[in-house]
């Protein structure tokens, strides 16, 4: 008892540190490092002073506490559960043999220490190792990603080893389960995943990952409370991996009388069963202890997560979508891009580009054109449809298990994977192509074929296709390829996806398109960092809408063109400027130059997170603001738009909390002399705005 009391004092101390310093990890730079310590009670404590997780080692391994130390100073956990659950052949095993207590409504530590029960049939703790986080792929920051990227992130990697129980059949005794934890410095975040290793050399065990993480949490942390805990896995949505919030039904009680349980699992219409050959790994779970349901805090917290674990998503080339693949047209576009400072050309869909070609003449032409672009410092990429709706040779098509007939897509765990990877890499090596827009990456469907080279049957097909699509992107990422992929393969190396728009909005008349797009981008940047999503500017017709929708001829639509450039570059968001030229006169060239120069000058702040100041209601001004509390210079940049047909003089309430400024803000409108503003009690300033009809302005804040 005495030891435990000492222990609570230590936790209390952590809390005190946070409170005394009044630190906010979203504003203050947290310099504490992650530590793993043996507590006086003999448990292991993994802590980065923002969160901590405590593990019981004796008589077996279990998570016995998970604390938020930065926002609420409280425990998330109300009950002990196994660390994970797997099935070998038909036998289900808990990983870690500490049974849930019978009293699970809240964590009664007195009861737990007195009455904890053992599960003799579980995999038992054998040992642990401590190291540093491992990078899932190598990465060197490029293309103006922030200079402060740490890769792999700093922190602690804890590997916990489990051995099969005495009761297991002999051939299961060669299996070791490793539960991996990574906690990172300066962010209330933990990653977890499982490796299952078979040293028998037989390769005939069937494995299912039933649960990678099971946490019995207190209500406020669940979606049925305040959603203070954000849990995601590292796979695209709809690919068979799930973070399920369910009733806690394991204990003998009325369902619903306890707060819910989170269960991170594979779940599809059929069980996922994979042959265990040597080693298999589960998906990764990311657990972000936000401790708030304020929309801006939740958004900023999630943004820190993706910036940390998928740092390459912060690369931000300014690119052009070229619709004409002919050499003269390509070179004309490259000349224009070089003039105005664009950085990347993508052969768009409809340009006739063929990355899978082995036609020597074609490869020669592309090689020579890409060399021309390179001589002007411009990178080149191209579009390819690789899975969803992709027709390949019949033996590589995915088979629908219900009909036995081919689906309308390729199976990514067939020979198609080898063919595609080989052709992509060969084409890149020969031509110098350094970017891909892989449309329809593998989308999560199963394949019932039993003759494909990389999966056994329907039951392991989703698992295998996910891994191979991930490998495809990781391989490209390690070659510094920039990857547009309309899905969520960011933790596998993908760079960018659509920001979240509706495809049809780019067929609306120009002003409607611009306005709806600015509104939508405002909403989508709660979910996404600016550099992870693309928007669209249909210089020529995209889906439809004709002359009213397209920006060509540019000279005739200069005001709209400037709005598009300003609202996207001002948001730090790349748009697919899609057409065959960037300007048609000196006047339109000047517009593009002006906004590209603005972007390049303020790039370090423009690619930072967005604070949502005022959504466009189209009745008055609207505004968003980038913030970087760690900057020693510019800490904020606010864009302000007047989409109305009248001049507006008003005050804009600018919330400066997340700039990290506390007393005085120095503000400069478009590089005019700096003016001082005193922050109010809630960190806002009242900024006078005077804009003509259809005026756009911006403010620097330091
Ligand atoms: C905690 O558990 C102990 C021992 O089982 C029990 O006596 C006590 O009533 C419990 N406390 C609460 C608040 O449930
Ligand atoms: C977790 O989900 C899987 C898949 O649906 C299910 O088999 C398992 O029983 C669940 N575990 C718990 C503890 O709810
Ligand atoms: C592509 O550009 C070439 C060269 O400028 C031109 O001859 C051709 O008509 C263009 N193709 C299309 C479809 O516009
Ligand atoms: C592609 O396949 C060919 C033929 O098997 C092989 O020689 C070549 O090395 C492969 N290229 C790459 C980049 O994997
Ligand atoms: C466009 O600018 C160039 C360079 O400044 C100049 O030579 C040319 O005359 C201008 N064209 C027109 C149509 O004004
Ligand atoms: C504005 O505030 C800054 C920092 O507080 C100070 O250094 C500067 O002198 C002030 N400028 C004016 C014009 O008051």
Automatic annotation (TrEMBL):
Lineage here is: Eukaryota, Metazoa, Spiralia, Gnathifera, Rotifera
Q: Where is the signal peptide?
A: 1-22
Protein name stated in the entry:
Uncharacterized protein
Q: Which UniProt keywords apply?
A: Signal
- Organism's domain of life? Eukaryota
């Amino acid at each position: 008892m005495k030891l435990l009391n000492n222990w609570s004092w230590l936790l209390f101390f952590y809390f005190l540190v946070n409170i005394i310093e009044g630190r906010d990890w979203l504003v203050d730079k947290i310099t504490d490092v992650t530590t793993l310590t043996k507590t006086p009670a003999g448990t292991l404590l993994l802590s980065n002073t923002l969160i901590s997780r405590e593990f019981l080692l004796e008589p077996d391994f279990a998570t016995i506490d998970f604390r938020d130390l930065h926002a609420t100073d409280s425990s998330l956990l109300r009950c002990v559960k196994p660390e994970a659950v797997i099935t070998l052949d038909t036998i289900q095993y808990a990983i870690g043999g500490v049974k849930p207590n019978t009293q699970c409504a809240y964590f009664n530590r007195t009861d737990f220490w007195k009455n904890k029960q053992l599960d003799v049939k579980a995999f038992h703790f054998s040992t642990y190792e401590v190291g540093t986080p491992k990078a899932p792929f190598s990465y060197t920051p490029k293309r103006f990603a922030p200079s402060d990227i740490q890769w792999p992130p700093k922190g602690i990697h804890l590997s916990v080893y489990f051995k099969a129980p005495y009761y297991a059949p002999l051939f299961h005794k060669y299996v070791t389960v490793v539960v991996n934890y990574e906690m990172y410095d300066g962010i209330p975040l933990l990653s977890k995943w499982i490796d299952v290793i078979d040293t028998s050399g037989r390769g005939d065990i069937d494995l299912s990952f039933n649960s990678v993480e099971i946490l019995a949490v207190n209500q406020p942390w669940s979606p049925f409370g305040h959603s203070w805990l954000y849990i995601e896995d590292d796979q695209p949505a709809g690919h068979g991996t799930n973070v399920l919030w369910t009733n806690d039904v394991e204990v003998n009680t009325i369902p619903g009388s306890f707060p819910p349980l989170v269960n991170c699992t594979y779940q599809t219409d059929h069980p996922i069963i994979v042959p265990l050959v040597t080693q298999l790994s589960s998906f990764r779970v990311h657990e972000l202890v936000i401790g708030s349901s304020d929309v801006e805090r939740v958004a900023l917290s999630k943004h820190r997560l993706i910036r940390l674990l998928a740092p390459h998503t912060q690369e931000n080339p300014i690119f052009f979508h070229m619709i004409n693949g002919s050499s003269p047209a390509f070179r004309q576009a490259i000349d224009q891009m070089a003039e105005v400072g664009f950085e990347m050309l993508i052969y768009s869909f409809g340009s006739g580009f063929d990355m899978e070609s082995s036609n020597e003449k074609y490869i020669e032409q592309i090689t020579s054109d890409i060399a021309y672009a390179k001589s002007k410092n411009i990178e080149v990429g191209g579009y390819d449809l690789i899975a969803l709706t992709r027709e390949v040779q019949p033996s590589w098509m995915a088979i629908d298990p219900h009909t036995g007939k081919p689906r309308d897509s390729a199976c990514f765990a067939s020979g198609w994977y080898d063919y595609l990877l080989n052709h992509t890499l060969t084409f890149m090596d020969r031509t110098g192509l350094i970017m891909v827009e892989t449309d329809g990456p593998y989308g999560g469907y199963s394949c019932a074929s039993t003759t494909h080279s990389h999966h056994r049957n329907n039951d392991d097909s989703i698992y295998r296709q996910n891994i191979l699509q991930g490998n495809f992107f990781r391989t490209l990422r390690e070659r510094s390829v920039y990857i547009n992929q309309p899905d969520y393969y960011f933790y596998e190396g993908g760079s960018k996806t659509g920001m979240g728009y509706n495809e049809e909005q780019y067929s609306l008349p120009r002003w409607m398109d611009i306005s709806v797009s600015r509104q939508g981008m405002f909403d989508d940047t709660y979910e996404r960092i600016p550099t992870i999503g693309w928007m669209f500017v249909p210089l020529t017709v995209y889906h439809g809408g004709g002359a009213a929708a397209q920006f060509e001829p540019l000279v005739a639509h200069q005001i709209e063109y400037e709005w598009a450039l300003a609202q996207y570059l001002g948001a730090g968001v790349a748009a697919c400027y899609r057409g065959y030229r960037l300007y048609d006169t000196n006047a339109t060239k000047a517009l593009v130059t002006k906004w590209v120069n603005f972007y390049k000058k303020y790039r370090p702040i423009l690619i930072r997170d967005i604070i949502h100041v005022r959504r466009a209601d189209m009745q008055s001004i609207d505004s968003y603001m980038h913030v970087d509390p760690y900057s020693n210079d510019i800490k904020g940049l606010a864009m302000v738009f007047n989409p109305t047909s009248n001049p507006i003089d008003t005050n804009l309430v600018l919330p400066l909390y997340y700039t990290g400024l506390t007393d005085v803000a120095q503000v400069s409108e478009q590089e005019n002399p700096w003016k001082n503003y005193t922050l109010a009690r809630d960190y806002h300033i009242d900024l006078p705005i005077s804009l003509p009809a259809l005026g756009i302005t911006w403010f620097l804040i330091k």
